[in-house]
From TrEMBL:
Domain of life: Bacteria
Alphabetized UniProt keyword annotations: ATP-binding, Nucleotide-binding
Keyword ATP-binding: yes
Keyword GTP-binding attached: no
Organism of provenance: Pseudoxanthomonas wuyuanensis
Enzyme class: translocase
EC numbers, comma separated: 7.3.2.7
Family as reported in the entry's similarity comment: Belongs to the arsA ATPase family.
Sequence ranges assigned to domain ArsA/GET3 Anion-transporting ATPase-like in this UniProt record: 10-327
Protein name, UniProt field: arsenite-transporting ATPase
Any one GO molecular function term: ATP hydrolysis activity
């Protein structure tokens, strides 16, 4: 089910509770798709990165080649926040009168650690990667952080669009106000003093540029939203273990994603205990069956793939290739 789902999509997200195997299953799916001849980009959005651990090699914020047809990168949360703030700060400095530039810098320094800043910056970077990835790759696979974080992130494009929209409207109002003020007198007149000295060309120039910037931002978020909510292009796969809490969290995550307009394309139940390898695991297997029953009754009709618990960890390209061969 996973292979057919992936083959028909351009963007895949893998999410779920911590430690269930998101990174492993995401990487194996990406590898299988690259093996089938598609150009694939694998992106980790998890601040506690593990693509590097999984591939047993250095993976960072720059794209590296992981296998034939498969590129990968790990988003660097702090660098993402810094780049995001640099862009917003630049816009604000242009928007504010020159003598307030110091205040803008102070505000930006404080914003670095503000709640929500990581998510906003991460989302901006995801939007950029989706835009670029859809141009340069056939498939983009996102390996995400544990459930709560990702569900909030998925609902964010709408909020960010609304926020930018509000800013645009306010800017249009102040633009009219600024024009009226400028008409009050000469360049040295009261109007110019009130709205501040010009830093970049005329007032109209500046307003125009700010509007362009806001439009570009809004467009970026709208585009991301469009891609995320288009179930023909994008699918979200929830990875879980057949245990009580992962099952409950999966049902909750599914509901949260639904509210955000994002289609869950399938479930991967990883680390299933064998029924025929001793009494201990057989007992676990029986208990897992009960949790599977809860899962299937809560989410009937969702494609589901099960993967066995292996004797060892999955580390390195060879082990991943073998793991990928288990996907169907
Ligand atoms: N089917 C499996 N059998 C045995 N071990 C597995 C299996 N799948 C994954 N693992 C191991 O489980 C551990 C966690 O896997 P992984 O890092 O993919 O989970 P994750 O959901 O991405 O975790 P995190 O929430 O920390 O990002 C790893 O050591 C991995 O090798
Ligand atoms: Mg992971």
């Amino acid at each position: 089910m996973l292979l057919a789902l992936a083959a028909a999509r351009r963007v895949l997200f893998f999410g779920g509770k911590g430690g269930v195997g998101k990174t492993t299953v995401a990487a194996a799916t990406a590898l299988a798709q690259a093996g089938a001849g598609r150009r694939v980009l694998l992106v980790s959005t998890d601040p506690a990165h593990n693509l590097g651990h999984l591939w047993a090699r250095e993976v960072g914020p720059q794209i590296v080649r992981l296998a034939a047809g498969l590129d990968g990168l790990e988003l660097d949360p702090q660098a993402t926040v810094d780049a995001h703030l640099a862009e917003v700060g630049d816009a604000l400095r242009r928007l504010m009168p020159e003598h307030l530039a110091g205040e803008v810098d102070k505000h930006m320094a404080l914003s670095r650690d503000a709640p929500g800043m990581h998510e906003a910056a991460l989302l901006e970077r995801i939007a950029e990667l989706v835009e670029q990835g859809l141009r340069d790759y056939d498939l983009i696979v996102f390996d995400t952080a544990p459930s709560g974080h990702t569900a909030r992130l998925m609902a964010l494009p709408e909020m960010m669009s609304a926020w930018t929209e509000g800013l645009l409207r306010r800017q249009q109002r102040s633009e009219r106000f600024g024009a009226a003020l400028r008409n009050l007198g000469s360049d040295e007149g009261v109007g110019t003093r009130i709205i501040g000295g010009e830093r970049t060309g005329t007032g109209e120039d500046r307003d125009q540029r700010i509007r362009q910037l806001l439009h570009r931002r809004r467009h970026r978020f709208e585009h991301l939203r469009e891609v995320l909510t288009d179930s023909a292009r994008t699918s979200f796969v929830i990875v879980l273990a057949a245990e009580r809490l992962p099952v409950l969290e999966t049902i909750e995550l599914h509901a949260q994603l639904l509210r955000a307009g994002i289609a869950v394309g399938g479930l991967v139940v990883n680390k299933r205990s064998p029924a025929d390898a001793g009494a201990f695991l057989a007992e676990r297997h029986v208990q897992e069956e009960q949790h599977m029953h809860t899962l299937r009754s809560a989410l009937p009709g969702l494609p589901l793939q099960q993967l066995p618990l292996l004797a060892g960890d999955v580390v390195g390209a060879g082990a991943l290739q073998a793991f990928a061969a288990r996907l169907s």
